[in-house]
Amino acid sequence: MSPRVTLAVAGRVLTQVRRDHRTLAMLMVVPCALISLLWWMFEDLPGDLFDRFGPGLLAMFPFIVMFLVTSVTTLRERSSGTLERLLTMPLGRLDLLLGYALAFGLLAAVQSALAVGVSVGLLGLEVSGPVWLLGVVAVADAVLGTALGLLVSAFATTEFQAVQFMPAFVLPQVLLCGLFVPRDAMPGVLEVVSDALPLSYAVDAMQELVGAADAGRVWRDVLVVACFALAALGLGSATLRRRTP
Amino acid sequence: MVKNVVQVRDLVVVRGGREVLPGVSLDVPAGVTGLLGPSGCGKTTLMRCLVGAQRVRSGTVEVLGEPAGSPLLRTRVGYVTQAASVYDDLTVAENLAFFARVLGVGRDAVDEAVAAVGLDDHRHQVVGRLSGGQRSRASLAVALLGTPDLLVLDEPTVGLDPVLRRDLWALFHRIADGGAAVLVSSHVMDEAERCHRLLLMRGGRIIADGSPAEIRDRTGAADVEQAFLRLVEGREEAA
Known about the structure:
Number of helices of chain A: 10
Oligomer: heterodimer
Strand content of chain B: 25-35%
Number of strands of chain A: 0
Distance between the termini of chain A: 25 Å
Largest sheet of chain A: none
Number of strands of chain B: 10
Distance between the termini of chain B: 35 Å
Structural class of chain A: mainly alpha
Helix content of chain A: over 70%
């Protein structure tokens, strides 16, 4: 593994995204538009429903978007032959994975800064904890999405399949993350499943920041998300083989 | 005697339950060697073995005195896959700059590689908007970065116009004159005469090995295509 190669990969991925203006615009604008839509939906209802659902949504954007973007990009890398070529070069498998994680982590940081800015600045989301910590959670989330995307792309042979992994891998996590039904109010089995899914911790961290804002608990959740991301990166690296059948 | 750049012994490769290479042995010396044979005869699999991308059942593959795929070889072997393995959404220069950073070679290597494949006028164009021939030349340029000692080229001239094919073969010879070994595969027999040495392949086996003239003389054929056909028919009669 070498920083030179890791940075080369990250730089290349960012150049590719920069070239694709439409994707870049959607990455930045869509989360802001959706969070505004959520705020508008709750406008006429009593209570602070936006404060309850907003943080969860902020946790989901980076995760879902980076999962999709990564699984499609790496699938393209596998099918175009560039991955095979790279693996015959002095490139460590971790260089590739960390390069991707770095590039998409940066994108997610910008994306989240915009979404958080809109939520807190324009829509009046009340955040009790430090706002920058929202950014840390979002980046951890994005890296998790990237790591899982890299992992599942190994099991997809077409882009159609890669996109289908989104409902298969991501939607169950969205349903069970505690946004719709508090996790401790779910049937016991589902609560256990929810405890084993990474997005639950990401959403917990965001909600904690908006609510009680116990920094210790936020960092604990971030750590859990980071561990999931590392495990997925490790498994993903096992799917990158220099020699293939 | 010139030391062989590549030495393959009793190589067996099984893909999808089928023996694609049923125990092949061959050598590749310096110079331009053509690996010729019909589609599906195992050329690509053999080339993937040389660059260490193919899982091997048994046998040995040595490149520049090292086992194929060993870390020491990763900067010394250039490989071009059949499809152009470059990023369509980057320019020629950006593609090369990226691979140059991975290989740890300088920016001047990028300029040399672009010039060698004649893409100077297109270096700031996005690869996806280039013609098929230009894309495959961009892919070839990546393999030239860092002047490797062995170039493995999987059908680099297929589908190119005659002028371009002539220019590329001239390039392969210039590279070989610089001391490198160039292994070029093709299923078009009329490219045979441009090689110093030929390996004719069929059904995962090498059926002839020698200079174009040697192979023609041995079979009494007028050209390599006819020689190939005679060798195949001879085998079928013997079988």
